[in-house]
Amino acid sequence: MPKVSEDHLAARRSEILDGARRCFAEYGYDGATVRRLEETTGLSRGAIFHHFKDKDGLFLALAHEDAMRMADVAANQGLVQVMRDMLAQPDQFNWLGTRLEIARRLRTDPEFARAWSQRSAELTEATINRLERQKSAGRLRDDLPTEVLVGYLDLVLDGLIARIASGHAGENLSAVLDLVEESVRRRD
Description:
This protein is an all-alpha fold. It has 2 domains: 1-52, Homeodomain-like (Arc Repressor Mutant, subunit A, Orthogonal Bundle); 54-184, Orthogonal Bundle (Tetracycline Repressor, domain 2), CATH 1.10.357. It has 9 helices and no strands.
């Protein structure tokens, strides 16, 4: 049997993730059955699960891929820019609406919660590091601990995700993000 190149495997994995993103966005986490994943990706379950252990593994790989992309933006431009990117390209992030569904699993499934936490750690770490740098440069409020600012921005991020997922990403959300950004800036 001929060997498959690493480039081919990486391309197939990326193809599966792209299809899974669409499937999770359309049907939600629970509704994205293996059959629907097969239909959306155009691949067999064998091909899909050759790359991913199971549906959770596929979902968590997708979460990790997006968390890494968002962490890069957060590290260089801040978490508010991540949110602006979500508004500019909601189709790239609409699968995150499944967070509403998986919140239940985060409360009831410790193994899933641990794996999810590991996948989102990069974004949290990048956000903390960026906020600390901005504080040191005198650009951010210094009357609040960094952990409070992170919690605040995470809360806004979750709300934005819920808005995008429900189809209510109206024009005023950009102005809301301006307000959020202004609220964490240092006041002279």
